[in-house]
Amino acid sequence: MTRPEEIEGYEVPLHVALTQPILMGGAPRTFAILNGTLALVIGMGLHLWWLGFPAGAALHATAVVMSKRDPHWFDIFRRHVRQPTHLDS
User: Distance between alpha carbon 50 and the CA centroid of its chain, in Å?
Assistant: First the structure.
């Protein structure tokens, strides 16, 4: 008896891009957009360029390192933040 994966004519090629998260510069897209926006607001809006741009670069570098270990870390973090701090019984 053959397994369903081995039946002739029922193979579907799946591109790797459909299963991997979208990254911008190695960091998750939503985090990169949020981080870039906050860095620009602090750097250009508040005229604290010496604080906003290095902090944004450091956060982006940290996100890249974290994404190499687990590409879905930002989605997990967002789910963690939405959880209640205690469960009602």
Answer: 26
Secondary structure of residue 23 in the 3-state scheme: strand
Domain contains 38 = yes
- Establish if 65 belongs to a structural domain: yes
* CA separation for the pair 70, 57 (Å, rounded): 20
DSSP 24-59: ETTEEHHHHHHHHHHHHIIIIISS-HHHHHHHHHHH
Please state the domain count of the chain.
1
- Is 47 part of a structural domain of the chain? yes
State pLDDT tens for residues 15-52. Answer: 888 888 889 999 999 999 999 999 999 999 999 999 99
Q: What would the two tokens of residue 38 be?
A: 């906050």
